[in-house]
Amino acid sequence: MQRLRLTFAALIAACGCTGEGAAALARLLGIHRKLAWQIWRIVNAEDPLRIAAFVPTQRGLKPLLESAERCGVRAELIGDVQARVREFEEFVRLQSGDRKSFEMTMTSLGPEPDEASELQWRKAAFEGNSYTFGVRARTVFRSNVFYPASVSELGFAFIWGLVDLYRVRPNVAWRISKKKLVDDRGHGISLRQSPLSRNDQEVTGPSGVPLWSEFSSQPLPPFTRRSTPSGEIEDWMEATRVGKPGVVTCVTAETGKVELPRHRTADEQVHMIGGVLNTPSEWFVLDQFLHADLFGSVSPAAAVFSNLFGGEHASPQWRGNERLPISVAVRHLGRGPEAGYTVHVPRYVEMMARAFELLGCDAERFDLYRIVLQYPPIPATVAMWHDLPQAPAGT
């Protein structure tokens, strides 16, 4: 790859290009802008492993070589370029069989994440999954609020939603959420929960799904809640119309209390939340509002884990082999609902302000930590966690 890059660099230097950029190269040689951009990327890439996607085919290379010949470039140098491209194509054939597989392999071998390539592949997966599974969403979001309810209990609110869920084909019911609380060892923890908004008791109805009608589109299709043998709670949306007439935004909101330690114990080392992803979406937003008195100052870590082999709710230390090479980070956005403004969730500031009002909590006492991921993979879990603090001396 290095020899290929050096040969292209020698060619454009011999043509008289002095480094003004791809547009200048296109004008100088009279070639298409795309071809000029490819050559410029090859010559200027910091990592030779990143250039595979930009190497033109022998046929695509022809206009460049013809222009180089008109510029008086030596025939030997033009022949060297042709030879390097033939060597590259033979190497691709032997190592991967086809260009696309080779590009994917080279991207994954780079010393640093190539975010542009990551996004390209995940977008392709999003489009394919949308067709395969029959649905797609503009945004999937998970907002989790935690505060001290008593000496031994944490109060919580789970506000989860799908924005602009679009049906590609009819008769597709869809699971909108899946919840389970577990300890560090993956054992289930019982929790008491109820709809956050009392006005939505009638909307919740016999299905048990805690829909928040104030922030959902209307009319909504029927929903059902199911409990699995492994202790998970699943909320399902029944099939609705295809295309734009059937687009749905739905938000669920519930609150409760759970016995969880606020300090490190022999069995509990971390506090973790995870967003289980099964819906093809353009964006995923995972928020955590932590009361200032709950854990003190924290610095959460983040990762994305594959769920192909289960384990959606396991702690990170048990999932090393399932961690995906996706760039994701936690941002501390400040305190209160206004810190959470996002274009990806309509009326989000209003929604969270209303949630804190219903909880009876001072929103300005909550720190907001956020993960945003474009074209998230499925099935996967996006996890955010931090170490639990040590218990104060004498407790």
The chain-level mean pLDDT equals 86
- Termini, distance in Å? 61 Å
Spatial order of strands in the largest sheet:
4-7-2-1-9-12-11
Rg to the nearest angstrom? Answer: 27 Å
**Helix share bin:** 25-40%
The SSE order reads HHHHHHHEEEEHEEEEEHEEHEE
Major sheet description? 7 strands, mixed
Counted up, domains total 2
Shape: elongated
Keywords:
13 strands, 395 residues, single chain, alpha+beta, elongated, 10 helices, 3-stranded antiparallel beta sheet, 7-stranded mixed beta sheet, 30% helix
3D structure, described in words:
The protein has ten helices and 13 strands. A hairpin with a 5-residue loop joins strand 5 and strand 6. The N and C termini lie far apart (about 60 Å). The protein has helices spanning about 1-15, 20-30, 35-45, 60-70, 75-95, 100-110, 115-135, 200-205, 290-295, 350-360, and strands at about 135-150, 155-165, 175-180, 190-195, 225, 235, 250-260, 270-275, 280-290, 300-305, 330-335, 365-375, 380-385. The strands form three sheets. It has a seven-stranded mixed β-sheet. It is about 30% helix and about 25% strand. Mean pLDDT is about 85; it is low at about 200-205. It has two domains: about 1-110, no CATH class; about 120-385. Helix 1 packs antiparallel against helix 5 and helix 2 packs across helix 3 (about 35-45). With about 400 residues, it is an alpha+beta fold.
